[in-house]
Design brief:
Blueprint: H1 2-22, E1 34-37, E2 43-44, E3 49-54, E4 63-69, E5 72-73, E6 90-92, E7 97-102, E8 108-116, E9 125-131, H2 140-166
Parallel strand pairs: 2-9
Antiparallel strand pairs: 1-3, 3-7, 4-5, 4-6, 4-8, 8-9
């Protein structure tokens, strides 16, 4: 009985080895551009975002690429390109990184896609990020706090002025008759 179990174990091991050896090798992943920054799913304070794009070292030379935000190509200044212009072409060295500054992004979710210009043969890369608020415009809570503080200051100032008049007409220091109350 022991030998039957040992033979079954040897047979199972050999069969597994044959299955592993017969499995085709995984296809190598295609070379692709990479969006290094912002990370996919990032929450950023806009409206300006620095997009860092990397190219694989195996690209063999400089890689030219285009950038599209929400389906609209970006121009050389990082603004949305005018209709029909097709956008600007940027460049990154093989194995290197480059930064493209995207301007005038409104609050909300955005999808950026970088696509290599032929004949590079690199797969495109994409990332989705969220602009939370545009700087220069404080959130409503800060404005409300400032307004409440200003109203409280004005109220206290007016109240203190009324108290000053009731204790001697706004004069400071001891009274003229020598009574320091």
């Amino acid at each position: 009985m022991r030998t039957i179990a040992a033979r079954a174990l040897v047979l199972a091991t050999v069969a597994t080895g044959v299955l592993v050896a017969a499995r085709p090798a995984a296809a190598a992943a295609p070379l692709a551009l990479a969006i290094v920054q912002p990370a996919d799913g990032a929450r950023l304070a806009g409206p300006t975002v620095d997009l860092v794009v990397g190219a694989p070292a195996a690209a063999g030379g400089p890689v030219r690429f285009t950038v599209a935000v929400d389906g609209t190509p970006a121009d050389a200044n990082g603004n949305p390109a005018s209709p029909g212009s097709g956008g600007a072409t940027f460049s990154v060295a093989a194995g290197g990184r480059t930064t493209v500054t995207l301007l005038a992004l409104p609050a909300g979710s955005h999808r950026v896609v970088v696509t290599a210009v032929p004949p590079a043969g690199l797969a495109p890369a994409s990332a989705t990020f969220t602009i939370t608020s545009a700087p220069g415009r404080p959130p409503w809570a800060v404005l409300l706090g400032v307004a409440l503080f200003a109203l409280a200051w004005l109220f206290m100032r007016r109240r203190m002025g009324t108290l000053d008049r009731s204790f001697g007409g706004g004069r400071r220091g001891p009274r003229a008759d020598g009574d320091g109350r």
